[in-house]
Automatic annotation (TrEMBL):
This is Tn3 family transposase. Coiled coil: none annotated. It comes from Bacillus thuringiensis. The keyword Plastid does not apply. One of its GO terms (biological process) is DNA transposition. Residues 208-594 form the Tn3 transposase DDE domain. Keywords: DNA recombination, DNA-binding, Transposition. Belongs to the transposase 7 family. GO terms for molecular function: DNA binding; transposase activity.
């Protein structure tokens, strides 16, 4: 592998790059120890010889040193190293630095030098003032640093002053404890409205529901031959609906063909391969979202200005190279990652491996969601607490507001070393390193402007801005800025009960959507049987499309029922309307209709019917 791929360092440190070259030169050696120095003559005298190091070893992590070097002291260059342990260390470090972006592979897509995807410094200078004006950011590093510092200092003093009145929060041993929010009681009026909905909701099966939404919106318009030529198929709309139902509900072509009886399994598979792509499913989803946004009812649930991101595990077969065991969820599979608007509609979906930190994909919605609903506030579970995510989201103009559960790993930073507080002082640790933020402010802005122009995805940057890198100054700057912004958020979180309630409601909606979309994925024991990553992502998109169709249909029916309810002279208030949800399934028949034919006449049974030309001998 080291011979086939061309590795290149993206930082000033070239130690690992030299180590790879050194390893390749010694690849045929079988001895346990290999020499790291060579001697050369340095003068005219017979004893004028000097030892010259063959390879830079300063990059070796502390934990590996005692296994590699014959000398335990780091300040003494060893004359030999353990070959096998050195090889293992090189591969270990190559993996880490590929993840952090400190090492790249020439010609690679996933592990390319991310700096080449950024805008040039000339483009940066030309567009800086326009971008900062639009984003509400200051153009100079010193002014930006001062602005954030003043915000932090002002809010910390305000929270400290009002803390004695905050009865919901107590501090024990430097850790805050927050009283749980009281559960909202269901009003008699809400019970009456829900009962009316159950009585008036029209029963329907999934395929008829898809047909109704297609009749209203014609969302299959985005499906067609990938080659670009006109479809030469009979009843294309019917075929597209059948295909979406087949893959979105996980029946598979064979079972779908058996259940429907009007189409062949090969026809369904052919439509999926030749007429439908992941991209045009997303376009159909966005078309549905835009139509959904015209209803009045969802406006009682949310403005569309915020969304919650959450992941749920989808099962894959264990004997699958793409399947991974998830520690938190348990079992083998992948993660379906969704952005759900505060008005319940799902804006974007993605399928990612279990081993990936979910939070790195939280900002991709900025580039991949082209619908009319564009949130500027993102909620998430604990996956969104990462400091670099806070830093990047702030510069992108996104308010990141994750749900906070575990405070032990969260640090509140002081604006200055001498900042002290009367009531909340023990929550703070060190102070913010404003120097590194100021020094690399232009580098961070260049990254953000590159994202805004579509040159690079936020997830690409966040995958590189990880704790694997000890040398990446850009990571350190984003982390430090993120710690400052996260401290601002945590102070608001502690002092504002309404904010905590909003975040909990948003994350509850995304978790409810996870259960709702899995309810619709009823075929094949809920297991994605595909082994190809692109096909797996496509199935997640199909399922997302089906879920949004059901949400749209439910809102249509709810609107009709509520309209009839008030026409009968009944009253409705905003509180009742805001407590309703479109994730309704009680009226949906997932499995189709089965009829019993009373006139059916099966053939008579003949127990002694011959099944072999030879006479059967009685068994002993």
């Amino acid at each position: 592998m080291l011979e086939s791929l061309r590795f290149k360092s993206t930082t000033q440190s070239k130690g690992l790059e030299q180590a790879i070259t050194f390893l390749l030169k010694n690849k045929l050696k079988k001895s346990e120890w290999i020499s790291t120095i060579y001697t050369r003559k340095n003068g005219m005298n017979k004893n004028d010889w000097e030892s010259v190091p063959l390879v830079d070893l300063t990059w070796i992590p502390e934990g590996w040193w005692r296994w590699i070097s014959s000398n335990r002291r780091r300040n003494v260059y060893p004359d030999k190293i353990n070959r096998r342990h050195f090889e293992a260390c090189v591969f270990y470090q190559v993996r880490n630095e590929l993840k952090s972006g400190d090492l790249c592979i020439e010609g690679s897509e996933q592990y390319a030098d991310y700096r080449e995807q950024l805008i040039s410094w000339d483009e940066y200078q030309q567009n800086l003032h326009i971008f900062c004006e639009q984003a509400g950011l200051l153009t100079t590093a010193e002014a930006f640093k001062t602005q954030v510092c003043n915000k932090l200092e002002s809010l910390a003093k305000k929270v400290d002053t009002s803390f004695p009145k905050n009865k919901a929060v107590t501090i024990r041993n430097g850790e805050p404890f927050i009283t749980k929010l009281k559960k909202k009681k269901i009003s008699p009026l809400l019970k009456a409205v829900r009962k009316r909905i159950e009585e008036r909701m029209v029963p329907i099966n999934v395929l008829d529901l898809l047909s109704d939404t297609e009749y209203w919106l014609n969302w299959t318009r985005f499906f067609g031959p990938i080659s670009g030529y006109d479809a030469k198929i009979t009843k294309p709309t019917q075929r597209y609906l059948t295909t979406a139902f087949c893959y979105g509900c996980n029946l598979g072509p064979t079972q779908a063909a058996r259940s429907l009886g009007t189409v062949d399994r090969r026809q369904i598979s052919w439509i999926n391969e030749r007429h439908v792509t992941e991209e045009n499913i997303q376009k159909a989803i966005e078309w549905l979202i835009n139509a959904y946004n015209k209803f009045n009812l969802p406006k009682y649930w949310g403005t569309g200005n915020s969304a919650a991101a959450d992941g749920t595990k989808w099962d894959l077969y264990e004997q699958n190279l793409l399947s991974e065991n998830h520690i938190r969820y348990g079992g083998y599979g992948g993660i379906g990652y969704y952005h759900v608007s505060d008005n319940y509609i799902a804006l974007f979906s993605h399928f990612i491996p279990c081993g990936v930190w979910e939070g790195v994909y939280i900002l991709d919605i900025l580039m991949k969601n082209q619908s009319d609903i564009q949130p500027n506030t993102l909620h998430s579970d604990t996956q969104g607490q990462n400091a670099p995510i806070f830093g990047l989201s702030y510069l992108l103009g996104i308010q990141l507001m994750p749900r906070i559960r575990n405070w032990k790993n969260l640090k509140l930073l002081r604006p200055h070393n001498n900042s002290n507080y009367q009531h909340i002082n023990e929550l703070f640790t060190t102070s913010v390193n404003w120097n590194i933020i100021e020094k690399h402010y232009e580098d961070m802005l260049r990254v953000v402007m590159s994202i805004k122009t579509g040159r690079i995805h936020p997830s690409t940057i966040l995958n590189k801005l990880s704790g694997y890198s000890k040398k990446n100054k850009l990571y350190q700057a984003f982390r430090e800025l993120g710690c400052a912004i996260r401290t601002l958020f945590l102070l608001k979180y502690l002092s504002d009960e309404e904010l905590r309630s909003t975040i909990q409601a948003a994350t509850n909606k995304s978790e409810s959507f996870n259960g709702f979309t899995k309810w619709l994925f009823f075929g094949g024991d809920g297991i994605i049987a595909e082994n190809h990553r692109e096909r797996q992502r496509k199935i997640i998109k199909y399922n997302h499309l089906i879920a949004n169709c059901v949400i749209f249909y439910n809102v249509f029916q709810l609107t009709r029922i509520l309209h009839e309810y008030i026409q009968e002279g009944n009253e409705l208030d905003e509180e009742v309307l805001s407590d309703l949800s479109p994730y309704l399934t009680f009226h949906i028949n997932r499995f189709g209709k089965y009829g019993l034919d009373d006139n059916r006449q099966p053939p008579d049974i003949q127990f002694d019917m011959a099944i072999s030309p030879h006479r059967l001998n009685a068994a002993n």
